[in-house]
Amino acid sequence: xTPLLQLDTVxxxxxxxxxxxxxxxGVSLAVQAGETVALVGESGCGKSTLARLALRLTPVxxxxxxxxxxxxxxxxxxxxxxxxPRLQMVFQDASAALNPRRTIGQAxxxxxxxxxxxxxxxxxxxxxxxxxxxASLASRFPHEVSGGQRQxxxxxxxxxxxxxxxxxxxxxxxxxxxxxxQVINLMSSLARQRGLAMVFxxxxxAVVRHLADRIAVMHLGEIVEAAPRQRFWSQAAHPYSQALIxxxxxxxxxxxxxxxPAPLAGDLPSPLAPPPxxxxxxxxxxxIATCQHQSPPLIRLAPxxxxxxxxxxxxxxxxxxxxxHR
Amino acid sequence: xxxxxVSNLSVVFTGRGRPPLVALDDVSLTVAAGETLALVGESGSGKSTLALAIAGLLDTAASVRGQIDVAGxxxxxxxxxxxxxxxxxxxxxxxxxxxxALNPVHRIGDQIAETMxxxxxxxxxxxxxxxxxxxxxxxxxxxxxxxxELSGGMRQRVALAIALGQEPRLLIADEPTTALDVTIQxxxxxxxxxxxxxxxxxxxxxTHDLGVVAELADRVAVLYAGRLVxxxxxxxxxxxxxxPYTQGLLAARPPFGPDAPMLPRLTEIPGGLPSLSPPxxxxxxxxxxxxxxxxxxxxxxxxxxxxxxxxxxHHPGATP
Lengths: 326, 320
Ligand SMILES: Nc1ncnc2c1ncn2[C@@H]1O[C@H](COP(=O)(O)OP(=O)(O)O)[C@@H](O)[C@H]1O
Ligand SMILES: Nc1ncnc2c1ncn2[C@@H]1O[C@H](COP(=O)(O)OP(=O)(O)O)[C@@H](O)[C@H]1O
Ligand SMILES: [Mg+2]
Ligand SMILES: [Mg+2]
What we know:
The structure holds two protein chains of two kinds. Chain A contains twelve helices and twelve strands. Chain A is of the alpha/beta class. Chain A has a domain at about 240-325. Chain A has an eight-stranded mixed sheet with strand order 6-7-8-3-9-10-12-11, sandwiched between helices. A four-stranded antiparallel sheet of chain A has the order 2-1-4-5, covered by helices on one side. In chain A, helix 4 crosses helix 5 (about 120-130), helix 4 (about 105-115) packs parallel to helix 6 and helix 6 runs parallel beside helix 7 (about 175-195). The radius of gyration of chain A is 21 Å and the shape is globular. By secondary structure, chain B is α/β, with parallel strands linked by helices. Chain B is about 30% helix and about 25% strand. In chain B, strands 6-7-8-3-9-10-12-11 form an eight-stranded mixed sheet, with helices on both faces. Chain B has a four-stranded antiparallel sheet with strand order 2-1-4-5, with helices on one face. Classes of the chains: A alpha/beta, B alpha/beta. Chains A and B meet through helix 7, helix 8, helix 10 and helix 11 of A and helix 7, helix 8, helix 9 and helix 10 of B. The complex binds adenosine-5'-diphosphate (2 copies) and magnesium ion (2 copies). The site of one adenosine-5'-diphosphate (ADP) has 13 residues of chain A, from strand 1, strand 2 and helix 1.
């Protein structure tokens, strides 16, 4: 099946006063219709840059972006006008994404108006209902509603043009636990009911485990592992994926008492100067000499499970490397 | 013996042209020497207001009623000079953003040494020792570094070193790992646990994250809309929470772990925090509560002994 959204060895460096930031380095990722793919990794690893590239909000340095089989890497703004409605985004900070001087109703109407859609008033009402907002909120301004309600407005806006793909960049990270559950439930039921494909960018692995059909782990601009949910949570193979899983705070005090030392020592390396060889070797508890100077190959552990790690090419180490979930 | 005793503390913010905001209402709690008390609640529940009040750092626009005693010294209404005196060997604080504790134009070593007694050489040696204590072994180089040269995790360690340099009897940490990445958060949580064990620190840990609570707390106080709703030992709070809000918070977390179930839906707490200007009469959680009765809307529940600790609820107990 042709993926709905496909990134093929996409690369992007940002020019900054401190030098070139290698934000995305040869990333390939395919998203099928109806599936939710999570992109996880620590801050600065390039998740938001990848989202901007996929949406053609910023140009790639190299690589290709395909939407529904069509190469849009260098598509003109005019050509993109036809595609943009099908490919939408939800941001972490809904208050920054919304115009403070436009009411919630206007904010949801804006994309409909710009794209000349019919029956706008009825559509706005239906969208408010779909994201669980009372119709009376349409006349309020963004600052007059709660953070959870603003995020629902952001979601309604993204859905207004009936997209096929939604890229949600940390959509619940700024929300409190009690409200977060509401928005997570909303997103998963919308994805199911509308058959949406979703790229869910997040750093809270418990939320990702709940939502994602497939997980892709980014480290310093590269996807180091990708696997479907069952395999990922039971057999994550890359030492970085394993460390991320083991870093999640314990669910209970008993589990906390049973745990060992922190999985990783030291800090994330700088994307201004990614380490040579495997970019994770400076923090990897199991690095071998090869890791310091040779880029790890992409290893296929199952038809839909891949990882970049030298240890996985060594059959003896393979067993130890796939102990998976703590 | 309790090191910290907060009694009937209320804090009201009165701003120009704004109705008064009741950030804390009749809060009482104690922290025993050597224990870690976690103060949890969602944003806006009054956690930072309580932390700042205890540290004597509250905005002068706040009107404060009640008592706060730290090792027998009263904080509320104390003169600023008396508070300064209390700070050494008294209370130190670390914040979510470690930069707020660091001066960007002073080298790390000077900032740690600044708060310590002794000759220049003695203070420098002490600063170097403190950096080791907080897990920064390359002290010689770090003493000369500027704050902007450090990562977020290192800055939080330095902020801890500065706090520890004051040899506090009580350390208040307000969301100390919230801004950090998960692998760095795991390091800082273990560091705090080690410091607590090795130095016998008394820690007031402010957080919205129940995972952080599970990792560090001995006891937990749950704050909702400016009132304490439940206080219990950490195991009891997680295994037999008594307040519907505590139960809701625990249930709203997506399960995680090797044997955790995959749920079709998460348990939601409907609605959001009530307005605090003024707060509703009766129980502040009433509008979101599945067990609400007429009494809850009229009559404010007080903290009372429960099977597991203290709970402020007219209908406490296990989830039906
Ligand atoms: N517009 C930009 N200009 C310059 N540097 C940027 C820009 N956007 C992101 N970066 C840098 O690129 C790297 C990756 O950032 P980002 O994609 O935001 O990561 P993430 O979303 O995973 O935190 C970081 O080092 C960041 O500072
Ligand atoms: N200096 C201040 N002036 C006015 N209102 C304040 C001030 N500080 C906090 N508040 C209000 O008090 C309430 C509690 O805030 P805070 O203690 O920061 O909560 P938390 O730390 O739990 O998020 C909030 O409604 C907040 O807006
Ligand atoms: Mg980002
Ligand atoms: Mg706070």
